[in-house]
Design a protein that fits this description.
alpha+beta, disordered N terminus, disordered C terminus, elongated, 6-stranded antiparallel β-barrel
Length: about 450
């Protein structure tokens, strides 16, 4: 037993040269490694959130490089014209008011608005009773004067015979000379009475003729062939022609219409009598009615400090589709060409003097970007430059000869071929701004945390 105790004490006595008393527990070491790994994974979502917020802010609010936007078009073949535009109204080339020249009641009206009439056709009648009574009185007065004339002529014959008799008596010394002188005076008075009656007869005849003319005026005939466009007077209405001439109907010749266009003072100097003109209607914008400029009225119409001159031209109207007071969009053609090469006017540029080719590419002035022409032929026959997109996609500047030009298109006489692609306009734009259209200076990026 003592031996056993000694052995136990010997075993428990520490030894300097023995290994340290360290106990390894495998389960505890693995648990520490797992705790460290789980803590490192906690930072990964934070890093991803920061990166995502930074990318969003950069794409949303950051400055992006400017990219060039280029608009192109193709050289086509078509028609082009250079014209002065105006607004006008339609009117009949000839119209007349048929009125009453005598007073009275409108007894009958034989036509209505829209009826076609021929010259000398009866259109209205005025009650002739009053004028017929005047004619009857005139005829009676004339008959009375004619009877008086017969009596005066008989007295004249008697006075003439008395003179002859008194002259014979004087020669035989049967009567005094004074008796002959009295007979001569009586003959002269008789001749004067005859002349006075004849004058009264002529006056009465003129009065009778005038009343007969007035009787003819009670029937109103069409003065020309045309269409009834207005009838201010109504049947049964009393007309007073003593002060003004009352209009019964208005007749217009609608076979030819006149366009009365209002042209501004800035464009009227570009018009020439005889130049081609046409107009379109609101209901028929695709149909042209062609004519020749007939007249430019010298007296303008001024309204609200705007000076407008009237330019007139006529167009035929065989089918009657044109009516009075229609509104028309008028075009006075200065120059026109058909089946020619056409490009947009904005594609043309004129290089500054002395800059050469480089001016056409950079510093040249491009048409349609400010100094647009007011429908004129500015630049016609001049040289210009266009930028052509080649088949490989490269840009090439070419010199071209410009023909007829207007605000929209231009004729190319040389330098281009049909089907070639040209640059109409170029410009720099910000993609971010083009995307949302909201470019605001000084906008701060919102906090990401």
């Amino acid at each position: 037993m003592n031996k056993t105790a000694k052995t136990a004490r010997a075993d428990t006595t520490p030894r300097d040269d023995a290994a340290p008393n360290v106990t390894f527990i495998p389960g505890a070491v693995q648990k520490l490694k797992r705790r460290r790994r789980s803590r490192s994974w906690l930072w990964l979502p934070v890093v991803l959130a920061v990166a995502g917020a930074g990318y969003y802010g950069w794409t949303r609010y950051g400055e992006e490089p400017a990219t060039a936007a280029m608009v192109t078009d193709v050289v086509t073949r078509g028609d082009i014209e250079n014209s002065v535009t105006a607004v006008g109204t339609l009117d009949a080339v000839k119209s007349v008011d048929a009125g009453a020249q005598v007073s009275g009641q409108l007894k009958a009206l034989h036509v209505e608005i829209g009826d076609k009439v021929t010259q000398d056709q009866l259109v209205a009648e005025i009650d002739p009773a009053t004028i017929e009574n005047r004619i009857e009185i005139d005829q009676a007065e004339l008959a009375n004067l004619q009877a008086q004339l017969i009596s005066k002529k008989a007295q004249l014959v008697l006075k003439q015979a008395n003179i002859d008799r008194q002259r014979n008596l004087v020669e035989t010394k049967s009567v005094a000379q004074s008796t002959l002188d009295q007979a001569i005076a009586d003959l002269a008075a008789a001749e004067a009475d005859v002349n006075a009656i004849e004058a009264q007869i002529r006056k009465q005849q003129a009065t009778l003729a005038g009343d007969k003319v007035d009787l003819g005026y009670t029937k109103i005939y069409a003065p020309m062939t045309g269409t009834i466009v207005a009838n201010p007077a109504k049947e049964g209405q009393t007309l007073n022609a003593n002060q003004t001439t009352p209009t019964i109907v208005t007749i217009a010749d609608l076979s030819t219409m006149t366009v009365k266009a209002q042209v501004s003072e800035a464009d009227v100097t570009r018009l020439k009598v005889g130049m081609e003109a046409y107009f379109t209607l609101l209901g028929q914008p695709g149909k042209r009615f062609v004519g020749k400029l007939r007249q430019i009225q010298p007296m303008p119409d001024t309204a609200n400090n705007v000076v407008l001159y009237y330019a007139l031209f006529d167009v035929p109207n065989p089918d009657g589709e044109l009516m009075m007071s229609m509104s028309a969009q008028v075009f006075f053609v200065q120059a026109a060409a058909k089946d020619v090469l056409i490009v947009p006017s904005a594609a043309l540029s004129h290089p500054a003097k002395g800059t050469g080719e480089a001016a056409g590419q950079g510093s040249g002035r491009r048409d349609g970007q400010g100094n647009g022409q007011a429908g004129g032929a500015r630049g016609e026959g001049r040289k210009a430059q266009v930028t052509v997109v080649t088949a490989s996609g490269a840009l090439e500047t070419r010199d071209v000869e410009v023909g007829i030009r207007n605000r929209v298109s231009a004729e190319i006489r040389s330098g281009l071929k049909e089907g070639e692609k040209i640059v109409v306009s170029t410009g720099a734009g910000n993609n971010g701004n083009a995307r949302d259209g909201r470019s605001q200076r000084g906008m701060r990026m919102p906090p990401m945390f």
